[in-house]
Amino acid sequence: MSANNPPPSRYTYAEAGVSIEAGNALVRAIGPLVKATRRPGADAEIGGFGGFFDPKAAGYTDPLLVAANDGVGTKLKLAIDSGRHDTVGIDLVAMCVNDLIVQGAEPLFFLDYFATGKLESGVAERVIAGIADGCKEAGCALIGGETAEMPGMYAAGDYDLAGFCVGAVERGEQLTGDKVAPGQALLGLASSGVHSNGYSLVRRLAADKGWRLDRPALFDPEVILIDALMAPTRIYVKSLLPAIRAGRIAALAHITGGGLLENIPRVLPEGAHAVVDADAWAQPRLMAFLQAQGNIEPAEMARTFNCGIGMVLAVDEDDVDTLMSDLSAAGETVLRIGRIEEGTRGCTVRGSVEAWSAREPWEATHLA
Question: Most exposed residue of 79, 137, 149, 366, measured as fewest CB within 10 angstroms of its CB?
Fold first, then answer.
């Protein structure tokens, strides 16, 4: 080759911004975390092109499979900005498995998708460790996933998460809402905080009001504000499964985006109307803080946030006392929050000045 013509450049994947070695190192690092989620039906090994699950080994005879996928919304941005990467994985699992349990399905296995512009040392491991913690809490196996390093797709330090979960319920035992009837009681299981919905509004308030996230919260000086906002979504699977399998729950509603007003009607049949009494429980201090800081109308609270209730149960009156006792023993805070009445399929939430910091009694209805 002529001295005047230098040899052509040799391109590599690493020079384009993707490190295969970093990806392989991540797989090695998370191997023990994944193995810790083993359960009957899955060996929780990773590295293949797909993950296997054996429903028969899990004890199922004639199972229906139920699938769900979700993310954690803009709570992820709060996690990135604050460097709190350890619990968003729990949120990711919770948002999926709580959607499965409302169908009566036991979560069996989970897969995650983690995407970023550049793998940063320790961040992905912390996120996936949280996913493994959530899987152990829900009793499902982490059998695979995807880590995508995509230069140019994300701003420096940003990443995205998605989760996919499959569960099973024996044929004929699924919860479809057809057993809901007027006269039944509504029970609420307390949330652990904001969970994973409404964070676009939370972040807007934080920016506009100049919150110091690293300082004690105004509503609780013993809690750092960012810790209260990042509290992971509660996973209700293990406490609810025994009652579901005993046939003592008519329907469940996971209170996510749309709040109480829009999620409860999703599990009601025609002719059933849910009436929720907001005076039946005290709004958590965090929720009252958000409402006061944003001058948020009660109806807006009821369709944006969980307002302290993460799961709602429709149950027969004869089962109320036993269920409340059993769920309390399982670690849940259980509240009687309303009833099922005859009417157009939908939900009405009623509250007072004391319950909702409003200027007068209020009522909001959402029809399915």
Answer: 137
